[in-house]
Write a structure and sequence with these properties.
Helix content: 40-55%
Mean pLDDT: 93
Strand order of the largest sheet: 5-4-3-6-7-8
Largest sheet: 6 strands, parallel
Number of strands: 8
CATH class of the largest domain: Alpha Beta
Strand content: 5-15%
Structural class: alpha/beta
Number of helices: 10
CATH topology of the largest domain: Rossmann fold
Number of domains: 2
CATH superfamily of the largest domain: Glycogen Phosphorylase B
CATH architecture of the largest domain: 3-Layer(aba) Sandwich
Low-confidence stretches: none
Distance between the termini: 16 Å
Shape: globular
């Protein structure tokens, strides 16, 4: 970046203004913001089998979990995740790639798991229509890895947000949402490893989905505020126009 005339970042000042100012000062050059690429309201019809299953639950009660296309868990991590979802007692839809050493997710499920959660839990190992699932009235919580796409999709949804970051940029995104904006809860890590502590996933989910939870009320209120800002008319378009203008004036 030393030989460049300016720095371009795909973000918006509303969310990361102080960080952008710091970068501009540190590198002594202007920072141009393109604005975020926000998901549009989906008009895609959800697959009938998923729609029918979700329709069987009360509004806002289903927990949806997805860690993106790049994250592959170890088998013990995969089993820990699904067992913690079982422990919540809530209906859940988990969309994760098969863990290392397994060709399909069914091979890696704990013994007896499918029978115990039959009727209230799904673990699926292929691509799903994430925006359509998030917009379904029965889905009330989104557990995700805070990758760039999922971060914006979660912010533009009406779901409570629980974060399980894996890679460097995901960790920074999670800190932004959980600590700065306070629109989400990040799952605590085990002190002796980089993975989740024993009860932390279950505890995080319940903290945002329980109606009487102080944390849940706080993140819901903050989330609604930021969603309104991001969904304001011409939000993306104004950033793009300003970015083009900045380049022309450089």
């Amino acid at each position: 970046m030393k030989r460049s005339h300016a720095i371009s970042i795909r973000t918006c000042r509303e969310l990361e203004g102080p960080l952008c100012d710091y970068i501009a000062t540190e590198y002594e050059k202007p920072v141009f913001l393109t604005g975020p690429v926000l998901p549009e309201s989906t008009k895609e019809v959800l697959d009938e089998k998923w729609a029918n299953w979700l329709n069987g639950f009360e509004p806002g009660t289903v927990v949806f979990c997805a860690f993106g296309s790049q994250v592959v868990l170890e088998k013990n991590q995969f089993q820990e995740v699904v067992l913690r979802f079982e422990l919540t007692g809530l209906p859940f839809f988990i969309a994760l790639k098969p863990p290392f050493g397994a060709t399909i997710v069914e091979e890696a499920l704990p013994e007896g798991f499918e029978d115990r959660v039959r009727g209230r839990g799904i673990v699926y190992g292929s691509w799903v229509q994430q925006p359509s699932i998030l917009s379904h009235p029965s889905v009330g919580c989104f557990v995700n890895h805070c990758g760039f796409g999922s971060m914006w999709e979660s912010l533009m949804s009406s779901c409570q947000i629980v974060l399980v970051p894996h890679l460097a940029d995901q960790i920074l995104n999670a800190r932004l949402l959980a600590e700065e904006l306070k629109v989400a809860v990040e799952v605590e890590r085990d002190e002796n490893s980089t993975w989740l502590s024993k009860e932390s996933l279950c505890r995080a989910i319940k903290s945002v989905i329980d109606k009487d939870s102080e944390v849940g009320c706080m993140v819901k209120e903050n989330h609604a505020k930021w969603k309104q800002i991001l969904a304001s008319p011409n939000f993306m378009e104004d950033y793009i126009e300003k970015f083009i203008q900045d380049l022309q004036e450089l």
